[in-house]
Amino acid sequence: xxxxxxxxxxxxxxxxxxxxxxxxxxxxxxxxxxxxxxxxxxxxxxxxxxxxxxxxxxxxxxxxxxxxxxxxxxxxxxxxxxxxxxxxxxxxxxxxxxxxxxxxxxxxxxxxxxxxxxxxxxxxxxxxxxxxxxxxxxxxxxxxxxxxxxxxxxxxxxxxxxxxxxxxxxxxxxxxxxxxxxxxxxxxxxxxxxxxxxxxxxxxxxxxxxxxxxxxxxxxxxxxxxxxxxxxxxxxxxxxxxxxxxxxxxxxxxxxxxxxxxxxxxxxxxxxxxxxxxxxxxxxxxxxxxxxxxxxxxxxxxxxxxxxxxxxxxxxxxxxxxxxxxxxxxxxxxxxxxxxxxxxxxxxxxxxxxxxxxxxxxxxxxxxxxxxxxxxxxxxxxxxxxxxxxxxxxxxxxxxxxxxxxxxxxxxxxxxxxxxxxxxxxxxxxxxxxxxxxxxxxxxxxxxxxxxxxxxxxx
Length: 459
Ligand code: MG
Description:
459 residues; alpha/beta; Alkaline Phosphatase, subunit A; Arylsulfatase, C-terminal domain; 2 domains; ten-stranded mixed β-sheet; 12 helices; 19% strand; globular; binds magnesium ion
């Protein structure tokens, strides 16, 4: 008699497989250089390294923005956050006193996948609005377990040096971050040292419960965003210290998810994606990650702010290899829709490209450009290997905008670290990129800023 695993393979062998399961794992503030397979010398990530080797590792993949809220809005909608109002000049992200969130008029990845019968779940950090009308269940997720915004918010610590010292040995009671499930607060303050593990356990339960139908799991870790809490099993685990402990726990979770997929016979029909929402929060020094050979980090439009690790695994479908071409968060919605046989909205501007040809290894990535925003300001543009900076923040992400005239120009293929400004030698390229930026900006319609408004917190 056939075992259940064998039965699960029959439709695949007959070419009758339905839409694939999709597991999207997103780390928070993990840098481009923080995984073994991206060259980190002391953080061990055997599960993600294996995923990269058995699948595709992209070296020029961009997040949605250099900050959490905007980046996640871009991820789930396939649109630049400036188009949905999830990008602001007055505040970087949503805070507990924020009023706004992802508008209902936006169409999200889970909403699109649900048209094809997917079960949808989100575990982890949402950060797209915590008032009732903005929560994940109102944006296409059947179930949600996690924290509504960053794990350092609702701090009960005074700002200043004392806070900086205490954050090195964090305790749950220093923060008053709530955990939501089923639209209600189920825990407060969050027991952060076990939270990452609980995301994994609930993810595994969701996979088991939906093994017979297509599912979409969005696992958005709140880590390694500071404060760094690792499970006791991972404390002191890494030579890299507390930051490495947290990364190694995330890595272990990916291994556990893969083990369940293997046990259930779902590996051949599941796409697993791993990435990060923005670059490392360098102001946190050794508590932050690294962008490796890329310049700067979170909050900036240098490569280190927005270029992130990106791994894709789907045995038998995604062609193993290293992809040097461009991809971005905005591309995931059209790519997932394509794989699921679902349609992409046609009544609005979409900013993504379908990457399935590149994933299957039958053609190049269709993405040739990337528009670098900080808040609602377009600061830089990339076309092919060339990137022009028109505006920048010079010293980390708290400085005011600094227009650059003439702009800085870098060739990112030859100079990925953005060290050598070649604008003087290529005025024609600068002019082309300026034209591209101007045309793009003319096509962006101003909408209500969702991040600016604040009021007394509701929770
Ligand atoms: Mg982040």
